[in-house]
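note to self — DONT lose this again. spent like an hour looking for the file last time. sequence + predicted structure for the chain T wanted, 371 res
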Amino acid sequence: MSRAWLWAAGAIAIGLRLALFIATSYHPIVADSGTLVSPKIVSGTDLLFYQERQRDIFSAPAKKSLADYLPFSCASQGMLAGPLLPALLQLFRYENGNSWPLALFFLFAGSGMTLAWLRWLQRAGVSPVGLTLFAFLPGPIYYTLCVGTELPFCLLFTVFFISYFKKSWDLAAVAAWSVMLLLLLLTRPNALAILLFVILDSTRRYYSNLSLKRMSVLGGLLAAALLFGGLFFSYFAIVYKATATKAFFGVPDNQYLEGLYPMFPIWLDRFLSVISLIGAKILYLFGLRPSYSHVSMPYVLFRVASGLFLLPGFIYLFAKGEARHKALVFLFVLPILMVGSQERYSLPIQPLLFFYAAKAFGLVGPKEVEA
């Protein structure tokens, strides 16, 4: 495939991000939550929560100590947020009247991440049409504007994925995915799913040839899982409780579990109801859902069109995809389906799902090179 198509798709992707950045600087857009999104406005996803964590970490004296978040502690009062986003807020002094430095950082980071994935997709055999479609994928474009953990997490995941799934590891690749994994754990709790994948994948890789060094590595990974699992336990418990009554297509989560089909025997009613709940959460995971507020029709159409393309990729992955990709996506999605599923949670794996959607729609050539 000609490099010209790769550069063209990259130019389109960067051009779209830059155009939206400039346009929203003058005319903010209304997000699905009803808030305004613009580089000139201090706003973002769960921003108030992370600003509070920023004050907890960097103000003197700190309002809370680590003990306030430890599981099973009498002092436990809230959710422990990963420090990476609060550190970015502090570093760039993100506040009213000084929103531009972090906004520009998000613009450059989002553009670089997209170029990295375009290169990976091109090497994997995705056609020029597929590369161009990827440049228009709305989720990664929108979250270059919206300050939150989404874009930093996606950027770190991109470097992790590309370095971890190389055909062969050198010292640079191991160092890259190891550092990215640590930073992911310092960003969002869902990184625990990625750590669990690394543990299981490493066990499979080394099972037939264990050595003291490899056992030490696995032991270190398990210790990290226990440490971060303990630190984020209260986060998961609070979110799980808060979303227990969240409605999916107008039906509360707990009502699905109680049964939706009373005309059937109890066991069949519960089984079909749980399957319906999983199906509903998967549709929400890809943006195929009602809007939470009054937003513009183009925003809704882009979100739905993206979901209609990515959902077949999700299905194709589990039908014919590579086993390690299946394991990673399954572990990543599983905790999301246990709480309030939203399309922003699928953002890190969207490029991989796009690749399998491209395969499903015949947009991948016969020659595929694993990046």
